[in-house]
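Entry:
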Amino acid sequence: MSASRGQSSPDETPKSAPRGSRATLVIRNGGFEGMTYELGGEETLIGRNPTTDITLLDEGISREHALISYDPATQTHTIEDLQSTNGTKLNGKKIRSAVLTNGDEIQVGHTLFQFLVR
């Protein structure tokens, strides 16, 4: 079994960004619908604060609301709610932390994103 050699099979580890692909967040509602953010670094901070990587003018979002991190070893993206007032939802369910897969819907405040890997 490949797992015994320190490797995971595709069924064991969700792949969010295979080599050569790029991950993006696309806004799916409101006045900024269609706006795309590339997740290029190992960490992407989402919030209202102008110093965040993705800054949103949404009264339902905390100054530092959520963090998306990329693990190059497993090629996965993980979203973590940063103890925000209104929480973070993944595919309609409130989460604290979760691995993202292609097509997932993320809601922060009133803003709905779709996570895409291309």
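The chain has no helices and eleven strands.
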